[in-house]
């Protein structure tokens, strides 16, 4: 019993010593600690202020402009959607530039790229499409595939292959077989029938219920000659 009480007394003494040391440290470094806490508080307030008084209002302003250009986009008025129309709308390019920090501003890059593609301005389209970085979303994968289409139209087959391979990596039951088909076509165009066959076979084996699978046998017959 005496030994237990002695051990307990030692533990209490150690705890008291640790507390005393901590108190001494805080007292000695009180100014530095207070400055550090002040910096953290100011940082948090700055972030909250930026979000509340800058980012959120600009997000709302971007959305207000966005729907106007989306309406033009929906009826295939790609030039108006892209560049705007007088005081009625500012267009996707200006939205992307003016509100680039917002989610809507980033989305405007994707729309601008699509419009430029439709207008045959493939190099400019690639520039804007590459600014939209969300590869995980359905739109993000479509954008990546569209980059491949741009490169095909520019005759830059190696870059087209890289873009289509990225799009295929999403493993989407609708999009992946479509881009596998396009990948196969590119390989055929550069006389690489072995890789074209591999792309078409992947459609047949991995996506047998897709629209592309229904006609893939004729592509395979073409490259297996």
Could you characterize the architecture of this molecule?
The chain is 78% helix and 0% strand. It has two domains: 132 residues, Serine Threonine Protein Phosphatase 5, Tetratricopeptide repeat; 92 residues, Serine Threonine Protein Phosphatase 5, Tetratricopeptide repeat. Helix 5 runs antiparallel to helix 6 and helix 6 packs antiparallel against helix 7. It contains eleven helices and no strands. The chain is mostly helical. 32% of the residues are buried.
Second CATH tier, the architecture of the largest domain: Alpha Horseshoe
Compute the number of structural domains: 2
**Cα Rg:** 30 Å
Instruction: Give the low-pLDDT segments.
Output: 1-10, 45-51
Give the integer mean of the pLDDT values: 80
Helix content: over 70%
Summed up, the helix count is 11
The biggest sheet, with number of strands, parallel, antiparallel or mixed sense and barrel status, is: none
Based on DSSP secondary structure assignment, what is the total number of beta strands? 0
CATH class of the largest domain: Mainly Alpha
What is the CATH topology descriptor of the largest domain? Serine Threonine Protein Phosphatase 5, Tetratricopeptide repeat
Molecular shape = elongated
Structural class: mainly alpha
Strand content: under 5%
Distance between the termini: 94 Å
State the order of secondary-structure elements, H for helix, E for strand.
HHHHHHHHHHH
Condensed summary:
By secondary structure, the chain is mostly helical.
Features:
mainly alpha; Serine Threonine Protein Phosphatase 5, Tetratricopeptide repeat; 11 helices; 225 residues; disordered N terminus
